[in-house]
């Protein structure tokens, strides 16, 4: 009887949370999947005729989809390693600082809590054709013969990492600046959990700083590296505000990403079925990337 009473009490405590989860998470996912199978638009909002896989076929046959898909891939491939490398590097530096360590951590974390809208407006002002950066490059330093149109073309003259032309330098720089503090704090916490005895043993064996990093630090924070990698990958594919505020997808959706293109198709053209199908394509892509990342880290452990 006591065991049954405990089970009833547990069920009673779990019911409100499970009900909220089912109402606001499970049901919307099921409803969205049904929408992806229907010809749902402003004109057919009430009827919602069944269309099968027609929306998915339209997504994969759409040349703009492949443009924004490559944009999202390149954006993620550039920003994620950059954030992780810089975040880990600064975390290692800060872990060895005793004085003013809290101050440095707060300074580096401030961009994370800054509004995406405000940050996007600031970066748009800096990289505008008549903006602050062009003023210094042309009028003050004289290193250019005129204003560089950072936000008017798909290509960026100084974006060496963006040689595929998928996105522009301002958006990438903003993402690196905005989320660097997140990586730093996570890596800093992980570094503090690595036993100091391992570093002392490595030093006795004659290991230098680089060998200690490869053989002690990285194995000690491998789980954290995987966590940050997956989180940043999801964040890279979900970029929206900075693209919307800085470039607006111009020119001709050449700088759109999956999320901004999905928003455009849903609320500008009214093709909700297409947008719903695109959301599941995006979710499947992220799931496959997460599996690859898990297996890659697991193979290294073995």
Q: Can you put this structure into words, describing what you see?
A:
This protein has 302 residues and is mainly alpha-helical. It contains 13 helices and no strands. It has helices spanning 2-36, 54-61, 63-95, 101-113, 116-127, 132-140, 169-191, 196-204, 209-220, 222-237, 241-246, 258-267, 272-301. Residues 155-167 have low confidence and may be disordered.
Please outline what is shown here.
Helix 4 (101-113) packs across helix 7 and helix 12 runs antiparallel to helix 13. The protein is mostly helical. The chain has helices spanning 2-36, 54-61, 63-95, 101-113, 116-127, 132-140, 169-191, 196-204, 209-220, 222-237, 241-246, 258-267, 272-301.
What would you call the shape?
Answer: globular
List the secondary-structure elements in sequence, H or E.
Answer: HHHHHHHHHHHHH
Cα-based radius of gyration, to the nearest Å: 24 Å
User: Major beta sheet, specifics?
Assistant: none
What is the count of β-strands? Answer: 0
* Class from secondary-structure proportions: mainly alpha
Helix run count? 13
The proportion of strand residues reads under 5%
Mean pLDDT: 81
Give the fraction of residues assigned to helices.
Answer: over 70%
Contiguous uncertain segments of 5+ residues: 155-167
């Amino acid at each position: 009887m006591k065991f049954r009473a405990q089970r009833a009490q547990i069920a009673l405590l779990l019911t409100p949370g499970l009900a909220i989860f089912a109402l606001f998470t499970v049901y919307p996912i099921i409803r969205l999947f049904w929408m992806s199978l229907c010809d749902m638009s402003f004109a057919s909002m009430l009827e919602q005729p069944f269309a099968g896989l027609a929306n998915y076929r339209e997504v994969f046959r759409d040349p703009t989809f492949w443009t924004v898909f490559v944009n999202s891939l390149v954006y993620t491939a550039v920003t994620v390693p950059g954030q992780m490398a810089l975040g880990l590097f600064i975390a290692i530096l800060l872990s060895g600082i005793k004085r003013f360590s809290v101050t440095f951590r707060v300074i580096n974390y401030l961009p994370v809590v800054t509004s995406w809208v405000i940050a996007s407006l600031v970066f748009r002002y800096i990289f505008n054709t008549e903006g602050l950066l062009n003023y210094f490059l042309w009028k003050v330093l004289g290193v250019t013969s005129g204003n560089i149109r950072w936000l008017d073309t798909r290509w960026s003259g100084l974006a060496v990492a963006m040689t595929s032309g998928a996105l522009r330098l301002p958006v990438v720089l903003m993402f690196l600046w905005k989320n660097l503090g997140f990586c730093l704090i996570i890596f800093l916490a992980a570094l503090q959990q690595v036993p100091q005895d391992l570093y002392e043993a490595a030093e006795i064996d004659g290991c230098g700083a680089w060998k200690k990093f490869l053989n002690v630090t990285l194995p000690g924070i491998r789980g954290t590296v995987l966590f940050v990698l997956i989180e940043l990958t999801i964040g890279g594919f979900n970029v929206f505000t900075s693209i919307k505020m800085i470039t607006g997808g111009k020119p001709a959706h050449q700088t759109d990403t999956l999320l901004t293109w999905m928003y455009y198709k849903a609320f500008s053209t009214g093709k909700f079925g297409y947008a719903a199908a695109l959301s599941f394509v995006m979710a499947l892509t992220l799931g496959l990337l997460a599996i690859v990342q898990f297996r890659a880290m697991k193979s290294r452990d073995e």
